[in-house]
Write a structure and sequence with these properties.
36% of the residues lie in helices and 32% in strands. Strands 3, 4, 5, 6, 7, 8, 9 and 10 form an eight-stranded antiparallel sheet that branches. Strands 1-2 form a two-stranded antiparallel sheet. Helix 1 crosses helix 3.
């Protein structure tokens, strides 16, 4: 009969909340892992360098060929350094992020143009549905690995090529596939 404590209703709710927060944290980490596989895998898929040198006012910095963006409510993109800042999570389990693709006419030359892409993801049991510009692919995903992530890379490559083949100045070409010019 000593020091036994009776668990209160609040203790039960607090424990459940802690479990929910742990699951949420795990989900956010898994989302970041998947997004990194999309971005880093695309850079590798394309054979792109990792970074390029950018000089302004005598200061040299290095920028990614596949920059990360958070998506704002007004549809604009804000460049981010960390996945935690780039990914927007929704209470229903969906998440999104922005991805940039730096284009240049020849290696290490200017002008450079960033094509910005909105990537929307929906978690399904053992998979992620990825939607870009109204087209969707589903990839297996166990929280750590996605053996068929190349489906997303193929889709990005197809959409980028279609956009590049569109007539310059055609306003429908930008909106029709969901790319934004930065």
């Amino acid at each position: 009969m000593g020091d036994e404590q009776i668990e209160t209703k609040y203790d039960i709710v607090r424990r459940q909340f802690a479990e929910r927060e742990d699951a949420k944290r795990e989900y956010i980490q898994e989302s970041a892992q998947f997004a990194a596989m999309v971005a880093n895998g695309f850079r590798s898929f394309m054979g792109m360098p990792e970074q390029y040198e950018h000089s302004k006012d005598g200061i040299t910095t290095y920028r990614s060929y596949v920059p990360l963006y958070s998506l704002e409510e007004d549809g604009s993109f804000t460049e981010e350094t960390f996945w935690a800042d780039a990914i927007g999570h929704y209470s229903d389990g969906d998440f999104n992020f922005g991805l940039g693709i730096v284009l240049e006419p020849r290696p290490n030359t200017y002008p450079k143009q960033v094509v910005q892409v909105k990537v929307e993801c929906t978690r399904k049991p053992s998979s992620e549905e990825v939607k870009i510009a109204g087209k969707a692919v589903t990839c297996t995903f166990d929280g750590k690995e996605s053996p068929d992530i190349s489906k997303v890379h193929d889709l990005l490559f197809e959409l980028l090529n279609n956009w590049l083949k569109a007539r310059w100045g055609d306003p429908d070409s930008k909106r029709s596939i969901g790319f934004h010019l930065g």
